[in-house]
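Two proteins follow. First one:
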Amino acid sequence: MDLALKGKTVLITGATRGIGADIARGFAEEGAQVAICARTRADLEAKSAELARATGSTVIGIPCDLSQRGEPERVVGEVVKRFSRLDVLVNSAGVAPGGTVEEVSDDDWERGIQLKLLGLIRCSRAAIPVMRKQGGGRIVNVVGNDGNKCAHWEIVPAVCCAGEQIFTKTLAEQYGPEGIYVNSVNPGPVETTLMHGLFEKVAKVRGLTTQAVIDAHVESIPLKLKRIALPAEITNLVLFLASDRASFINGENITIDGGQMKPVLSRLVFGGRKS
């Protein structure tokens, strides 16, 4: 299927590793002009050079801290200055600290909300005037299934994800009439370095082996595949939503987690307890 993304200008946040990096590769392979942003300049330079070399597409890196006011506007401005337009924004940046309500501090809440929730809001707000002026665009938010499948040990991510999902629907209703489509994808566990770091942290806290935690996540997903998701499986959905093939999809929060059952995960890892 030709997604007709060649020549489109795409901005992807949090794109030097994990899901964001795979999404950036996917757009570059489709022939899009890609701008990636993250905090560390060296990582950005390495990743943009790697993607450009591997795909032949134009890929630039823009250092930024999306938790800081004014940074999203600067980044969008740099993209427009370089490419004269912005067709697609993929909000993929941001993680929030895990823990139960009694464990997470005010600083944890502040850090999670500033980066994961407000970073997404600010980037979208900066992109909308550009998309409106050019007659439309696509915003795809990579959120997480914590927003609709709550887990008590991930309360900060759950609150941020739920806020992002509501924000997605609200924007879609407001800006759909102007040709700006807004959707979110909500992955469960995905095969990334960050995910395995979380597995190790949970294992340490619960006195389990890392493999036991991995096995519990796999068992919570009722699929014959017997694994967690691959980054490319998330990328495929993002690319589709960013394309004109998704011309009648707007305001949707699409869960992509293999049907994960959080109660099963809670029983296996947390013994069904609430703390």
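Second one, unrelated to the first:
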Amino acid sequence: MRNTANEKLVSLRFNVKSFLVFVFILVVEFIIALFIHDAIIRPYVGDILVVILIYYFIKSFVRTKHIYLVIAVLLFSYFTEFAQYLKIVEILGLQDNRLMRTIIGSVFSWGDIFCYTIGAVLCYFIDRPKNIR
């Protein structure tokens, strides 16, 4: 895709720094999932981090304005939560698959929507272009 200034809106490339951030957050998410069983870190911090995780994974392969990527990841997160509201795991017949139930999620929560929004806002401010600061 191109914008009116003939600049590419999206291009593919591999960004090692973003991929390393993704891997680090993925390890943290695994640690949270396997070893943390509390009422704050696992349900809330994990949901905030998952948005950042997805952002950096996509950023590892796609070059675009960071605001576009933040919005796309946030909308994807909202869509996933809405799919949980519709009971997509049951519709797809995956209710007995623990891994897929964990990845997709099975319970809608406004708290999750709030956490996803916080994660997107953090991505926006952490990764905004240097000349804006």
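SUMMARY FIELD: Residues 16-35 form the longest helix (20 residues). Helices lie at 16-35, 41-59, 66-85, 88-91, 98-104, 110-126.
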